[in-house]
Amino acid sequence: MARYTKKELIELEDNIVEKYKNNKLPFLFHLCGGNEDQLIEIFNDINDGDYVFVTHRNHYHAYLHGIDPNTVLDRVSNGRSMFIYDREKNFFSSAIVGGIPEIAAGVALALKLKGSNQKVWCFVGDGAEDTGHFYAAVRYVESNNLPCKFIIEDNDISIQATKSDRWGSEFLFEWPSCVKRYKYDLIYPHARIEEFCDLEIASKYKKTDSEYFPIIKEYPSPKKNQNKTNLSFNEAVTEAMSSLGEKEDTIFLGYNVGSNFGNAMGNFQNVKDNKKIETPVAENLMSSLGMGLSLEGYRPIVYFERHDFMMVAMDSLVNHVSQIERISHGDFKSPVIFRTVVADEGPFYSGPTHSQNFTELFKNIFSFPVLVPETPEDVLNYYDYAYNSDFPVMIVEKKSNF
Ligand SMILES: Cc1ncc(C[n+]2csc(CCOP(=O)(O)OP(=O)(O)O)c2C)c(N)n1
Ligand SMILES: [Mg+2]
Fold first, then answer.
1. What is the number of the ligand closest to the CA of 56?
2. Is 76 part of any domain?
3. How many domains does the chain have?
4. Are residues 54 and 180 in the same domain?
5. How far is the C-alpha of 323 from the C-alpha of 303, rounded, in Å?
6. Which ligand is nearest to the CA of 35?
């Protein structure tokens, strides 16, 4: 439901411009303008409770989806223009171009599995249309008939470059029916307007990064487990998967998890078929589907059969799963369990790009725990800990331990 008229939207955005002119905003922010009519029409079809995913240019969408304009002004005034979130209203932004479509697809998958009548609306710029992430999300939503619409807000500009500058011609890809495009001319420059503000004066208002975005307090480590088991390492992994498979809220996804597709090392043999989702070989999509499912209360176990392949999922992992609790000030949490394997040894040597171990790197770049079980007891303990945590956990199984 559109809550404002065109005139009111422009006035709300003018409040931000005014603050900027008074040298009060030493931040990067992106003003909306020029697309009022199109957005009002689209928001007339959006219900309260629907999810709205938006890019860095998110103010109009926030107002129209019922976020209090004072809250928007407060966010913008505290360096959080690109980070407007609201758990209650299901409003989600991302400052990463192409970062949201696959997460939106994950939420839409969850809504379909639950039989909900909520919908997902994912607004992206023509810059996101440049990315493979957008392609994967659109193909997944269209193929699975998920309740999600993608809206390309096509102003034919990414910062200062037109599509033709970026791609070499005006050629436009034809997207399927889950994608709508509206065209408009942006009335402001890409980001803030230099001559409007004296940045030297404005900078006096600046606080530190951790004052604007408090660092999450350290996540608790797993407790030491004294219980002995007679299971081998491989049997313990199977047992951990079987036990997770018994929980109502879990769901397993990745490639080779479906019953007819390899059933990776036999570890998923006791997990019921209706708990397993075979995914495309699109790692950033896999991780993002997991994140989207977790936002709707599922406890996804996302399976990556080699560390090497996870490098393709880094935007999802580093910029979204790892950061979401901090950048949303705790509004959104994403307690996904990442089951990963390092093929450090074992019978099938497959060369350097199939046997790398990124554990130390991951420990450094993720906010969440990365655990390496060395014994069968560790395996059972770590998966139990991961399930009982409200934050993401990655568990790294070394083939040499199997
Ligand atoms: C992955 C990524 N690459 C680059 C940027 C820097 N950047 C911020 S906005 C932007 C332009 C995006 O253009 P578009 O998606 O068309 O949105 P518009 O600004 O036109 O609304 C770029 C390149 C980013 N935020 N994320
Ligand atoms: Mg654009």
1. 1
2. yes
3. 2
4. yes
5. 20
6. 1
Strand order in the sheet with 51-54: 91-93, 51-54, 120-125, 148-154, 179-183
* Beta-bridge mates of residue 150: 122, 179
CATH code, domain with 309: 3.40.50.970
Q: Is the pLDDT of residue 263 over 80?
A: no
| Domain encompassing residue 245 | 233-401
Give 116-166 pLDDT, tens digit per residue. 999 999 999 999 999 999 999 999 999 999 999 999 999 999 999 999 999
Residues in the chain: 402
Structure tokens at 263: 């059933």
- Atom of ligand 1 lying closest to residue 159 CA: 11
Ligand 1 centroid – CA 190 distance (Å): 9
C-alpha 363 – ligand 2 centre gap (Å): 35
Judge if 290 and 193 occupy the same domain. Answer: no
Tell which phi-psi region holds residue 313, choosing left (phi > 0), alpha (psi between -120 and 50) or beta. alpha
Q: Can you tell me which residue has the tokens 């909306």?
A: 32
For residue 219, being part of any structural domain is answered with no
pTM of the complete model: 0.97
Q: Give the model's pLDDT for residue 261.
A: 67
List C-alpha distances in Å: 389 to 87, 334, 382. Answer: 19, 10, 10
pLDDT score at 262: 62
pLDDT class of 24 with cuts at 50, 70, 90: confident
Residue to substitute in 159, 185, 318 for testing ligand 1 pocket (most ligand atoms within 8 angstroms of CB)? 159
HEC states along the chain? CCCCCHHHHHHHHHHHHHHHHCCCCCCCCCCCCCCHHHHHHHHCCCCCCCEEEECCCCHHHHHHCCCCHHHHHHHHHCCCCCCCCECCCCEEECCCCCCCHHHHHHHHHHHHHHCCCCCEEEEEECCHHHCHHHHHHHHHHHHCCCCEEEEEEECCCECCECHHHHHCCCCCCCCCCCEEEEECCCCCCCCCCHHHCCHHHHHHHCCCHHHHCCCCCCCCCCCCCCCCCCCCHHHHHHHHHHHHHHCCCEEEEECCCCCCCCCHHHCCCCCCHHHEEECCCCHHHHHHHHHHHHHCCCEEEEEECCHHHHHHHHHHHHHHHCCHHHHCCCCCCCCCEEEEEECCCCCCCCCHHHCCCCHHHHHHHCCCCEECCCCHHHHHHHHHHHHCCCCCEEEEEEHHHC
